[in-house]
């Protein structure tokens, strides 16, 4: 036998007031029942983009192989087309169609859309990575005969001709010229770029907005325009000879907007509380910039410098117009032509001789390695900056 219990009404004695019950009397008041709570809405389970079960893996692999077979049949037997790029694109389209059809059998429409989007993203990344690896691999393979020769790094081409074997002559003059020119360009652009970024970020005003617009526009400046500017001003107007210094100044024109733009972004993310604390302690604005803002942004400024250097080290046309190619080692940036790795590659690959072409691809491989190292260092510095915040 079940008994039902009920809550008795509370007996409340209200305070006496004018027009209320007399002192000593009580009134009965029942409390309202608690409001009924609505059930929480069901949470939709998180959809997995990657195949998790064996059926999903088999569907993915089968779609890849089926798309390959269908693309080969259409490309080779039915369509009047040719070329590796067209075949890869057709294979990708066939794969996506088959994968959507197979996924439709076991999953609802939202899962199908997620799987197709994930397949498109991964396929695009694979195509870009394959293209990059193909370029690097082909360059290294064509220049491997020159890269394995020790004299390639210790000799110039002053004693080597188009028919000279690879065991004589090298790219020393181009390597030294690249290092000298890029060092001068860094010495010019680093203080100017950081000063420009400080002016844009810390000073502000109408003129700073104009400077920012000019810097952003100059990031897309064609390299041939920078070379023509230095060639016209220094060599045509002022009469300076072709030299490594002129080439370095042309590279500086290319590197300056990159460094200034990147440094501007870095300085803007410095917390404003640091500036306010420094100013509250009695420091001036420039003391705050020098002792607080710049040390805080030092890793980001190093990344900006590396990115600008990577842009300038691979330029060819400014060096071609302002310095010119040479086959001998020249360590004096004020006199005579000074070669660089991009110009070394451009000059030799046009000769048509197998030994010169091998040396050109060897120089291109060195340039790729140099740029790759610069970008890796930039990523490492940026990772350290994010880790120390």
Automatic annotation (TrEMBL):
Residues 175-378 form the ABC transmembrane type-1 domain. Keywords: Cell membrane, Membrane, Phosphate transport, Transmembrane, Transmembrane helix, Transport. One of its GO terms (cellular component) is plasma membrane. It is a multi-pass membrane protein. It is found in: Cell membrane. One of its GO terms (molecular function) is phosphate transmembrane transporter activity. InterPro entries: MetI-like, MetI-like_sf, Phosphate_PstA, Phosphate_transprt_permease. It comes from the Bacteria. Residues 1-47 are annotated as: Disordered. The chain crosses the membrane at residues 57-75, 87-105, 117-141, 171-201, 213-234, 360-382. CDD domains: TM_PBP2 (cd06261). The keyword Membrane applies. One of its GO terms (biological process) is phosphate ion transmembrane transport. Part of the binding-protein-dependent transport system for phosphate; probably responsible for the translocation of the substrate across the membrane. NCBIfam families: 3a0107s02c. Belongs to the binding-protein-dependent transport system permease family. CysTW subfamily. This is Phosphate transport system permease protein PstA. It comes from Polymorphospora rubra.
């Amino acid at each position: 036998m079940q008994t039902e219990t009920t809550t008795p009404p509370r007996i409340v004695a209200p305070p006496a007031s004018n027009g209320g019950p007399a002192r000593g009397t009580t009134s009965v008041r029942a409390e309202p029942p608690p409001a009924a709570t609505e059930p929480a809405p069901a949470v939709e389970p998180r959809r997995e983009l990657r195949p998790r079960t064996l059926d999903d893996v088999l569907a993915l692999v089968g779609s890849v192989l089926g798309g390959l077979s269908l693309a080969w049949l259409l490309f080779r037997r039915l369509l009047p087309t040719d070329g590796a790029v067209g075949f890869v694109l057709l294979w990708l389209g066939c794969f996506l169609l088959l994968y959507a059809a197979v996924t439709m059998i076991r999953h609802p429409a939202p899962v199908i859309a997620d799987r197709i989007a994930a397949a498109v993203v991964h396929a695009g990344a694979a195509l870009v990575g394959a293209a990059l690896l193909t370029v690097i691999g082909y360059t290294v393979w064509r220049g491997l005969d020159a890269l394995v020769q020790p004299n390639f790094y210790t000799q110039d081409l002053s004693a080597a001709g188009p028919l000279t074997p690879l065991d004589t002559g090298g790219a020393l003059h181009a390597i030294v010229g690249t290092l000298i020119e890029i060092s001068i360009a860094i010495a010019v652009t680093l203080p100017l770029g950081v000063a420009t970024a400080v002016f844009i970020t810390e000073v502000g005003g109408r003129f700073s907005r104009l400077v920012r617009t000019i810097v952003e526009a100059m990031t897309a400046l064609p390299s041939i325009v920078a070379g023509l500017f230095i060639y016209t001003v220094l060599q045509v107007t002022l009469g300076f000879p072709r030299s490594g210094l002129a080439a370095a100044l042309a590279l500086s024109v290319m590197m300056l907007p990159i460094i200034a733009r990147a440094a501007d972004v870095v300085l803007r993310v410095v917390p404003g509380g640091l500036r306010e604390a420094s100013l509250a302690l009695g420091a001036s604005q420039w003391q705050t910039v020098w002792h607080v803002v710049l040390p805080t942004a030092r890793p980001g400024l190093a990344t900006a410098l590396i990115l600008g250097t990577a842009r300038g080290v691979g330029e060819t046309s400014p060096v071609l117009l302002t310095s010119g190619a040479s086959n001998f080692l020249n360590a004096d940036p004020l006199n005579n032509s000074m070669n660089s790795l991009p110009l070394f590659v451009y000059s030799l690959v046009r000769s048509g001789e197998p030994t010169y072409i091998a040396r050109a691809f060897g120089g291109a491989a060195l340039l790729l390695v140099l740029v790759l190292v610069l970008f890796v260092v930039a990523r490492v510095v940026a990772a350290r900056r994010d880790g120390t915040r």
